[in-house]
Write a structure and sequence with these properties.
With 153 residues, the protein is mainly alpha-helical. 54% of the residues lie in helices and 4% in strands.
Amino acid sequence: MKSVKTPCIGICSTTSFGDVVCRGCKRYSFEVINWNAYDADAKAAVLARIEKLVCQILEDKLRIFSVPNLRSGLEQAQVAYDPKLSPYCWLHNLLKKQHQQIVDLREYGVYALPDFAHLDLARLSEVIEDELLELSEAHYARYFADYRTGDLA
């Protein structure tokens, strides 16, 4: 079975600040710590959860109209992406790493939906990250907090 890539993008707040959810890759702290011990199925399950959350948030705000342009832009900007994941995950990596350098999202094959088109890219990226972190923390609280602390309901 082929190795599953880490979703780490080099912005880890679980090890730096002790966050429960990493502000970079959105893995839970215990997933970051145990990643290398996980088998391929466990890693794939983590990636699937993150992919679903990222897509849910980004598809509500942005539309990718050219995957080839997005791929080309990522490669030109030297932003890593996993081709097995949704292009919305690639876009998330691009926004995390390059939102301050991007002048026009359309060059990357992307545009903001009408409710978000008035926001500059820095603010839109902030809104996306805030919502993604909130959703990830809610998911953690619902499915793992009691288990991890030993406070079983």
